[in-house]
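wait is this the right file?? whatever heres the structure
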């Protein structure tokens, strides 16, 4: 499980059939203090996260396989939820 922030979205014209209609969020991992760690990755997004939102991501591929209905999907990272703002973030 990873703590991350959505920094954008990816687009692809050619992809695996199981990924048809899947929104791909570009995420940056976060440190314990909430700062970006520089590690950027794509994650399937069925939650509707927006740019700048903090999310938690699973990396095991099971959620993507269940959601797409394909055990052969190349997706591994899936956004499981959007985090509420912390008191520190609201103060900024």
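ok assuming it is, sequence goes like this
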């Amino acid at each position: 499980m990873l703590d991350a922030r959505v920094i954008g979205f990816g687009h692809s014209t050619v992809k695996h059939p199981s990924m048809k209609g899947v929104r791909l969020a570009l995420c940056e991992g976060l440190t314990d203090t909430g700062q970006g760690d520089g590690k950027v990755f794509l994650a399937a997004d069925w939650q509707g996260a927006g740019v700048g939102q903090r999310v938690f991501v699973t990396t095991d591929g099971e959620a993507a396989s269940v959601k797409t209905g394909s055990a052969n999907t190349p997706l591994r990272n899936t956004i499981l939820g959007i985090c509420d703002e912390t008191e520190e973030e609201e103060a900024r």
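The chain has one domain: 2-91. so i think its the right one actually
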